[in-house]
Amino acid sequence: MPAMGREVLSRAPARPETGPVHFVHESLPQRVRFQTGDAAAAVTAEVERLGAARVMVIAGSAEGELADLVTSGLTPVLRHDEVVMHVPIEVAERARAAAVESRADAIVSVGGGSTTGLAKAVALTTGLPIVAVPTTYAGSEATAVWGLTEASRKTTGVDPVVLPRAVVYDATLLRSLPVELSVASGLNALAHCVDSLWAPQADPINAVLATEGARALRDGLPLVAGDPAGLPGIELALYGAHLAAKAFASAGSGLHHKICHVLGGRYDLPHAQTHATVLPYVLALNAPNAPEAATRLAGAFGSPTALAGLQELRSTLGAPRALRDVGLEEADIPAAVEDVLAIAPPSNPTPVTTENLTRLLQAAWAGEEPQ
Q1: For residues 160 and 58, what is the distance between their CA atoms, to the nearest angstrom?
Q2: Which domains does the chain have, with CATH numbers?
Q3: Are strands 153-158 and 145-150 parallel, antiparallel or unpaired?
Q4: Would you report the helix, strand and coil content of the chain in percent, each value rounded to 5?
Q5: Stated pTM of the model
Q6: In the chain, N or C: fewer CB atoms in 10 Å?
Q7: Phi, psi of 72 (to 5 degrees)
Q8: What are 50-99's pLDDT values in tens digits?
Q9: Which of 52, 239, 35 is nearest to 131 (CA)?
Q10: Of 254, 228, 245, the residue nearest 175 (C-alpha)
Q11: Cα distance between residue 36 and residue 30, in whole Å
């Protein structure tokens, strides 16, 4: 596996320019296994650690073969494959009922963010422990955040019961991921890094995780785009995505995620592509009023400025460019602005107004160069 973490201490946050250091950081209790090529053994070992005997496997139909491989050392009592983006409440209710009916005592989820999200929805009401096996760079597996969509509105919350007890990362499971999805998912992970630098509970430890995560993603994603089956790039990107998610789990949801949750829940836009598209516009809005965060990101990208570094990476990857390309109508923008304003963090570095948020979404809709 590529050497990692060598620059973390050299970029440790400096003492604030004024006033004493005051912050609270909470680390989440979770076992994490990087076990390239050996996910089945790792999953079996983690299920045995839980003392579970009646495992429910959640995996969409597209991940059926991977789920078979990953759970080959188990005898599941249930295979549940109804996985839907943004976790509609009715889908969650059916999965919960299936878990209760099968008398499951643990969940193994194999898939991306939607799969992990459904497992969390089941855990939220049943308390069942989760062993998560990610097949994208979504990062949901490392957070205690759950999300459900009802009547075109996505509601999120934080509850320790939904945090997977264990995560198994196996780079070989991502070798067949289409390049365009790897790019979008990887930039979604990068959004966790960026948002964590100014989210409501941002702190110096989150900043270290986010900065190192951004560096790893900057290095790993171009390798993945150039050689989708190459393990070094996938391993590095997975490492970066995990650090990004850990930072996000502690720092909370910033403006970028508030925007994307509204767009995804209200208009059913694809999750990763929406995050990948919106990210540079939020960075352009906030960077002038968050100089330390901007400096950190610029260093992680190896670029004179954070925005220039992000845009160079996006260009290299052929990233999604416009919200109109993923299903947003221009007429949808005013209602989206209203919804985002209601939940925008008061601590956002640049105060959020109807005017600047409208400009941001219009530019992202058209795919204009972020200013």
Answers
A1: 20
A2: 31-174 (3.40.50.1970), 176-366 (1.20.1090.10)
A3: antiparallel
A4: 55, 10, 35
A5: 0.90
A6: C
A7: -65, -20
A8: 999 999 999 999 999 999 999 999 999 999 999 998 899 999 999 999 99
A9: 52
A10: 228
A11: 19
